[in-house]
Amino acid sequence: MRNLNDPVLLAQCARIKEMIGRIAADPKHKDDYYAKNYHHWQLSPPARIEEIEEFEERACIELPLEYVYYLTQVGRGGACPGTYFSDFSANQRFDEEIAGTSEQLSFIMTEKDWEKVYGEHGDEPGTLDLCGMDLTYIAYLVINGPQRGRVVYLDYDGDMAPMWPKGSPDFLTWCENYYSELLAGYDIHPTWKFMWQEPGDEDTLIQAFQNASDFTYKEEVLFSFLKFPKLSDKARSFLQSLQNSKYQEVVKKVIG
């Protein structure tokens, strides 16, 4: 039996649970689309580690540690960044390929590279369905392979490249990013905005842009400035300082 006593992960779970409680108590979030139609910001009781290990034995897998912490410390289902987390059960059904490894999800490719190599995807092995997101995307947890523990968005129709949440190397961080953005008052609705936006404040976005090399990624970071209700003088100066012509169109849309 696992000993779930990592102070860092326990603290992260406590923060997530506290944030959900604050959001649930705030009347302005009562009618948020997914809350109103699915989970109402309510969490189901946590799962027992024995239930998780029973499921793992049945499925011949080991769930990523951060996900196990969430199930046992936050809740087995309910409120989430999308439709809702189905209640975890030791007897829940699973795809027979859950113990496999997806070739497509073993590495992260640009959209253009993915289209050249694959062009489409199916129900990828080694993944666990988490929740519906916006439009035709579903969030999955990668169970096996090099990207194990990460969340990925897969298009229901299978003809769009997998989307990897920015700044979210694991399940708990993905959850915390969503609730942090929501509590900060950032514009992350409809949910597809959260799916591609860079999480964090203005300084975080500036640093993300400066550290990135891929043009599409840098462009999306610039568009992420649209989530702020108002840009600071520092952010405006940074955006206006970008002399490269390929960014000018984006900057104009962001600054207005």
Helix content: 40-55%
Can you summarize the main beta sheet?
3 strands, antiparallel
Number of domains: 2
Strands of the biggest beta sheet: in what spatial order?
1-2-3
What CATH first level of the largest domain would be assigned?
Alpha Beta
Number of helices: 11
Distance between the termini: 56 Å
Beta-strand residue percentage: 5-15%
Average of per-residue pLDDT values: 96
Report the uncertain regions: none
Structural class: mainly alpha
Radius of gyration: 19 Å
User: Could you spell the SSE succession in H and E letters?
Assistant: HHHHHEEEHHHHHH
Q: Characterize the overall form.
A: globular
**CATH architect. name of the largest domain:** 3-Layer(aba) Sandwich
| Count of beta strands | 3
A few lines on this structure:
This protein has 256 residues and is mainly alpha-helical. It is 43% helix and 7% strand.
What does this structure look like?
The chain is mainly α and 256 residues long. It folds into 2 domains: 7-172, SMI1/KNR4-like, CATH 3.40.1580; 201-255, no CATH class. The protein is 43% helix and 7% strand. It is built from 11 helices and 3 strands. The chain has helices at 7-24, 33-39, 49-59, 65-73, 111-117, 171-183, 191-196, 202-211, 215-223, 233-240, 245-255; strands at residues 127-132, 137-142, 151-155. Strands 1-2-3 form a 3-stranded antiparallel beta sheet, with no helix packed on it. Strand 1 (127-132) and strand 2 (137-142) form a beta hairpin. Helix 8 packs antiparallel against helix 9 (215-223). The longest helix has 18 residues, at 7-24. The relative contact order is 0.11. The mean pLDDT is 96.
